[in-house]
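Might you be able to review the protein record set out just below?
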Amino acid sequence: MPAAKRMRMARSRRCSPRRILACGAFAVAASSVAALHVVRPDLAPVSRRLSEYANGPYSDLMLIAFTATGFGLLLLGRTVRREAAPWSTAASSLLIGAGLGMAVSGAFKTDPAGLGTRAEVVHSAASGLATFAIITAAGLRSVTPFLNRSGARRDVTAGALGMVSIGLGALSRPLHHTPWTGLSQRLLWLALMAWLLRTAWTVEALPRHPTGRPDGSARR
């Protein structure tokens, strides 16, 4: 049996616990936010931002969402680092950084009145940087395989979700202080969460070889 076929078969049999846990974490986060839309009808989805769920009743659900997202990002970042692709290290670092940012953001509640308190500043900065890092990682993984000849697998679905995330991310800033800020943020995170789930489920982490490269090829 050819070596390439044996490697593909080994990869198909290996569904690592890390990948399963990452998908589970993202599913928990998405479910928590969906539940908040049901139990907090006082916050209009079009005009109110997601962070406002961190205040008032059921705030623990938002803490679960932040924590689960951060945990999933850390797991996904570790898995992406082991991919046989030239952009895996950069994407991995961005995802791990985003995971830490989400954890920090969840630890600091946003101010209900929108005042510039220390907690508000830390929360907004951490969540903003985390979101930017995820968008950048999605862009790297979506665009780079089409620009090089490394043989990296091209996931059209993940690529499309990454491009949509970039577009929605570009619209998010100008819409931040408008009556549409909540809708733009929710659409962005819907695309990002779909991309994270797709990537976590399909990412192929290869075993390390003595050469130091995931695919076992020698350095040139």
Notes: Residues 16-202 form one domain.
